[in-house]
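Okay, is this right?
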Amino acid sequence: MNNSVFTSKFIVLDGPDGCGKTTQTKLLSEYIESLGCKVENFRDPGTTVIGEAIRDILLGHDYHGMGDNVELLLYMAARAQLWKEKIAPALAAGSCVVMDRWLSSSCAYQGYAGGFGIEAVVDVANISLERSFPDLTIILDLNFDKSSSRLGESLDRMETKGGDYHRKVREGYLKFAELYKSKKDTAGIIDVIDASQDIETVQRMVLEKVLESFSKEKQL
């Protein structure tokens, strides 16, 4: 494949905690780099000085009383700064940006599990961010029993919210995909992959989806 199809593309792999998105983001980035395209990875929330300070607040155990609306606004603030400082310049320089969270996370966590509303989260994003949706969002779907077994012993504030909350998070990701999968003109390409299989199988499915998505786009 010509590496030009990845020039200035914004790709997000997302899903419940423990679904393997960090691993798959690394493997996808390595593949794209092997084609000769520069890849940038940033963490959401984080990377910038402001984003890392917000991350400490969002994930630290001193803030258990935080409301879902407060979480949402903090995530959006971190993303706005990340876009300005890192993502926009990287895309403008022709790099491919690959990340393991973005708007889809807030839709699942604060929007669905937290009750704020998925479409309301998108409304807030459209007001807060210069760009709400990436070119491609791949949801790595995994049920709570399997995803929770993959987490380590040291959990952040979001990871300690309990099984009922995280089961809703998974439902939220699937609902997000259902709501926006057909809206490619405004939401980019969105798809769901079964992440219950081994790393190599999931990697192959991710690559197939990425190549299929951008090959079709190149032909249009």
